[in-house]
Specification:
This protein is an alpha/beta fold. It contains nine helices and nine strands.
């Protein structure tokens, strides 16, 4: 039996985007246009999006969060904190869920963690929690993740590597593997070859072409880091 919390994000044929919407952001971003036109199958396990700055990874993540009803600045469905509304609308996307599957979800995005920490400290849960602002950036991120992402459900992580050292990235991968073993679904947008190497993950490379299947060893991300680490001077001499 298919127990994926989310089977697919699909376009609603009864509510297609208007011509005016298609001429404006975010539908001018190829990855977003592809998502709205074709939908996105969410595999059992993990889906990892990689791509350059400006490729549309974060916008896709925001659109997924909005479509799933999660707080677009981070948190669960029940979170109520906003600073500035800048996320896209759902654009007529529909969620296909597995019957009886967990409906719990959580969205973490690096650029809005300050607001999320402030919200969580002002609205404490029943369990003892640290003062997130008193932890380091990476420590606070991992604390929120491990306390909120503990079982079946859907977890969206937008550029978690921005908060993490190399060791922190390995700790993140370890926690994600434990989550996946419990039947959770994870979607991650990352610039980290460590996070992109998450065992068993489905990889999509995001760019001017939209979103396309990829293999870790052939990612531009992976080859660029490998070349730089092998010979940093070959890159740096061109920056002077």
């Amino acid at each position: 039996m298919d127990q994926r919390p989310i089977r697919r994000i699909r376009p609603d044929p009864a509510a297609p985007p208007s011509a005016e919407q298609r001429a404006c952001w975010p539908l001018t971003v190829p990855a977003v246009a592809q998502l709205v036109d074709e939908g996105l199958e969410l595999p059992a396990g993990a889906l990892v999006l990689v791509g350059e700055n400006g490729s549309g990874k974060s916008t896709v993540m925001e659109l997924l969060a909005v479509t799933l009803g999660l707080n677009p600045e981070g948190g669960s469905v029940n979170a109520r904190h906003r600073t500035r509304a800048s996320e896209p609308e759902s654009l007529g996307l529909v969620v296909e869920r597995s019957p009886g599957a967990s409906r719990w979800g959580y969205f973490l995005r690096d650029e809005t963690l300050h607001g999320l920490y402030s919200y969580l400290e002002a609205n404490p849960s029943d369990r003892p929690e640290p003062l997130f602002h008193e932890l380091s950036h990476g420590e606070a991120f991992l604390e929120v993740l491990t306390s909120r992402a503990a079982g079946r459900g859907v977890y969206l992580l937008d550029e978690p590597d921005a908060a993490l050292s190399f060791g922190g990235s390995l700790a993140l991968v370890s926690h994600l593997l434990a989550l996946l073993d419990r039947g959770a679904q994870v979607v991650v947008a990352t610039h980290s070859p460590v996070v992109a190497a998450l065992p068993g993950a489905t990889l999509l490379e995001v760019g001017g072409w939209g979103m396309r299947p990829a293999v870790w060893s052939e990612l531009e991300l992976t080859t660029s880091w490998r070349q730089f680490l092998d010979s940093p001077e070959a890159f740096l001499r061109h920056l002077r």
